[in-house]
Amino acid sequence: MFEIGKEYTREHIHTVCGGSKQAFLPTKNGKVVAxxxxxDLNPHAPEAILCSSGAAARAAGRTLAxxxxxxxxxxxxxxxxxxxLGQFTAAESLTSPLACAPYVVNSGFTLGQISRVIKLKPxxxxx
Length: 127
Description:
Number of strands: 8
CATH class: Mainly Beta
Distance between the termini: 15 Å
CATH topology: PUA domain-like
CATH architecture: Roll
Shape: globular
Number of helices: 3
Strand content: 35-45%
Structural class: alpha+beta
Number of domains: 1
Helix content: 10-25%
């Protein structure tokens, strides 16, 4: 599907995974199908991702927080070039301002703009 360390366009990610080409947590059939992050907004990625307080981000964050399936995680390196980091699952969801505060530092968001922090863990695959 994707190769760790390679770069992909949002169009390619959309073709493989589905969901929105613009959303950072594209969803399809009620599930988050990928994570596409900007490092300036998610300085702790992929270990922790920030969900803004916008309606779409809140809903997608809530979905991802309860989802057990592994999904591909990408971090944007330059315009429309997303570096594939591997498959991850949600490990923890933080919603209290006190718990979220350390992750908001250097993110471009204020604490009031964040609805949740989702901590991700890599999925190890055996061959």
